[in-house]
Amino acid sequence: xxxxxxxxxxxxxxxxxxxxxxxxxxxxxxxxxxxxxxxxxxxxxxxxxxxxxxxxxxxxxxxxxxxxxxxxxxxxxxxxxxxxxxxxxxxxxxxxxxxxxxxxxxxxxxxxxxxxxxxxxxxxxxxxxxxxxxxxxxxxxxxxxxxxxxxxxxxxxxxxxxxxxxxxxxxxxxxxxxxxxxxxxxxxxxxxxxxxxxxxxxxxxxxxxxxxxxxxxxxxxxxxxxxxxxxxxxxxxxxxxxxxxxxxxxxxxxxxxxxxxxxxxxxxxxxxxxxxxxxxxxxxxxxxxxxxxxxxxxxxxxxxxxxxxxxxxxxxxxxxxxxxxxxxxxxxxxxxxxxxxxxxxxxxxxxxxxxxxxxxxxxxxxxxxxxxxxxxxxxxxxxxxxxx
Length: 388
Fold this sequence. Notes:
- It is globular, with a radius of gyration of 21 Å.
- It is mainly α and about 400 residues long.
- It has helices at about 5-30, 35-55, 60-80, 85-95, 100-120, 155-175, 180-195, 200-215, 220-225, 225-250, 255-260, 265-270, 295-305, 305-325, 330-345, 355-365, 380-385; strands at about 55-60, 130-135, 145-150, 375.
- Helix 3 packs antiparallel against helix 4 and helix 6 (about 155-175) packs antiparallel against helix 7 (about 180-195).
- It has a two-stranded antiparallel sheet.
- The protein contains 17 helices and four strands.
- Helices cover about 65% and strands about 5% of the residues.
- The longest helix has 27 residues, at about 5-30.
């Protein structure tokens, strides 16, 4: 089979896998229970593996894939969560794929899915348009509230998806945007908040819009190394803060006060013994299946210390690439996603394309290996890879 034909087959498989994963995310956000979800995950994994097999990598790239693949496989054997293996396959398969095309497809498919769910619920065909319930918020959890979810099952889910789409819009268009475009995005964010009353999604989205606008119009700041160092320290600080919160719960007075603002996220996580910092394992136990909202604690509880550290390093690596490429939107998005994950576990999920950082990593992971005149080969060309 000719090389160009093989690579075209790989590309078709990759785009198909990307579309399926995005559709799975939107189905999960709806009221529909997907009976073939597990089978679809296997299909997307196989499609990504075909793309890998149809792609030439350098020796160092193959070693990188094998290392992370081995860690993910060990994680899967211990905790029986296959998303770690799927993430490695997806990220590795992104080599040679246009980043902006991936993100545009992600944005438009997500927007289309959101509009469809909105319309179906609005016309009373499928899904709830609004929910009246006790959401357990604040000092008076007995209060019954009416909040709008627009077909997504929970108000927070809709505000979250809006935040994710806004972050993609900012990444793709920030250089072309005028000041009033930022204002329009914030108006959309606030308009949605008036109905969902989802504080976290609204506030973090506002911070990300403001952060990108600030760096766009303040060129000395975005060229300064300081902003990227602060971004990295912010990510590390949030992780440490979450670890302390998982350990102390509300026993520490300061954590207790902060947890009041976080609506009891640490308190609920601390009740699960295995979720406490002192009980984290190198690879999490298969018995760690509880769901809760504190996303960074959930990361280490569900997957373990080693996968958790690798995820944090991924965030830091993206910030490094943000500085190296002067792609200032990435540092703001990474910081925003990290802040959001204190409160919500949207990004820590077996739905891998809930987290758009994996798409960014799919483009940036192989950049350090790209050198002219370096031999690249398929996995069966071992001899050439070793000698090349």
